[in-house]
């Protein structure tokens, strides 16, 4: 028999022993989230769907003019997603709730990048073009990007959009958290600054989370008891308060585990210090050396055994 | 490495090759359109569906189906079963072309093709894709190096460049002689390195989707996805050799290599069985069998993948009669090859369902043309190389000079 099962198991056993002997205990996964980032709280019970935030975002980021004017509220008849020309959109949802004049009460939902504490997009990006900044913003550096779109595959909120119609220099487009304005000019994000009803509160993440809890406690009838983004995917810098269950507003239920955790744990326990490739190389080298002198003997040209 | 390979003497422009040329031209047209109008111009990719046919077939399946290269190298060179050397060269050529086309496919798929080198400069060690890219890049170079002796064997002492290039004859021959002297001494490093790099990126390719637990259907999303990708790549290695050797020998009317292929696939029973056990075991442990009879497109795709891509060919291979029959063996191996292809497509395309946008995706004509064109080009070059370089085993009756 050429390669028989015994040989196979010998090799497998050797592999197992070598791997077991050299495997270091995988270090527990560590979150790399900044400890006190800034964030925004969106209070959906206050939002009136005026689309001023969309307009401000378009202006401060120098985005292309929209197809229909921002004052045109018929846009709300159809649900939209942020795309490569729009970092943020407002959608309207109607629920069973009725006001004192028997009108259905709409809920408006502003969508943009959540600036996750442990962003899947940044963990996935092959070149580190997306990175979590110390102030909490998830920043995109176009000069590194190769356009692989793995960030889009990874994002649990399906946020990053792509300039699919640019043949040579397309970009990944998503809310920047107005990084320059906030960090160097000391201003508010464009959308938070303009909101006429203070539906968007900007501040330290810890402060606005406390503020969110305070609002729920002071007004339990108005809010459901859940701050979306407090725990989802390990926490996000943008958080939401609502009077209607989030599932009815297009928010997906997400685990509390940060998205990158499993992949990073597996990759790191397998490849930290390249221990496993080195062990494998050594083992294969050993096997090759051991079978070398056999190679000169005639029996190695024997066929593969019974058929 | 003394086995008798020789360039195949056959007419090059057969009707089949003409068909390949037509498909190549169509694919070329689609690629030109992509670089004029952008990815969005030729594809159905969207924000919700950033990866489609190109990643599923050109990249993920291309990498998996090139696994014959490292599995035969392991068999013939590392554990010294020289008996199988007859299939090492064709497998090596398939791997070399396969990976070359992975890179070409990527050049079409990534938005900034000219920036494809940037991962070498900007490292992101948390990114699984970074690890895959690095391994693939190194492995591609290893494959070219492993293939070099075949070129040397053909041209050493016979360099005869046309016209004014003739002045280069002596230097080129000198280089070939140098390679001939040095390569055999260092080749073992590259052979082992090739196996190591393959194990690394074959498994990591499965880790790619671990970052999207809410998007990949639970039938495929499992922490052992990397292990499943590795074992299935190893298991498909020899069937792929059977598949392409049978195709090549049939179309060129050469001897079939049954006396090598039959014992080769005996090993596959064990490897494919291992993969099957892992896959079914994982389904039982995680309780995902509850989805099996959902009747959705996704669960049906899973059933097709498991039944026709793994269970049926495995049962077929168990029978010695099938293993000895050229037709039976070819059918079983084709099922395994297609099964792995379907698995990669399922993980990257069918099983990927963005929960918020729920975008339906079906590849556009443009995407299909690019993929078909690339595969046709691969087959065309394969045929070109085997008619000019000693890759396939020399027909039996001829005696080696
Ligand atoms: S929402 Fe998506 S794009 Fe924004 S930081 Fe999180 S993972 Fe990244
Ligand atoms: S598309 Fe750009 S930003 Fe996104 S993962 Fe790829 S390189 Fe990174
Ligand atoms: S933070 Fe800035 S970029 Fe983001 S939605 Fe608001 S205005 Fe737009």
Tell me what you see in this structure:
The complex is a heterodimer of chains A (307) and B (401). In chain A, 31% of the residues lie in helices and 14% in strands. Chain A contains nine helices and nine strands. Chain A has 307 residues and is of the alpha+beta class. Chain A has one domain (38-257): 2-Layer Sandwich (Alpha-Beta Plaits), CATH 3.30.70.20. With 401 residues, chain B is mainly α. Chain B has a single domain (15-159, 168-388), classed as Formate dehydrogenase/DMSO reductase fold (Up-down Bundle), CATH 1.20.1630.10. Chain B is 69% helix and 0% strand. Chain B has helices spanning 15-37, 39-42, 53-65, 68-78, 85-109, 128-155, 169-207, 225-251, 258-286, 297-318, 320-324, 326-350, 365-388. The relative contact order of chain B is 0.18. Chains A and B meet through helix 1, helix 3, helix 4, strand 6 and helix 8 of A and helix 1, helix 2, helix 4, helix 6 and helix 7 of B. One iron/sulfur cluster binds next to helix 2 and helix 6 of chain A. Chain A: One of its GO terms (cellular component) is cell envelope. Chain A: This is 4Fe-4S ferredoxin-type domain-containing protein. Chain A: It holds the Pfam family Fer4_11.
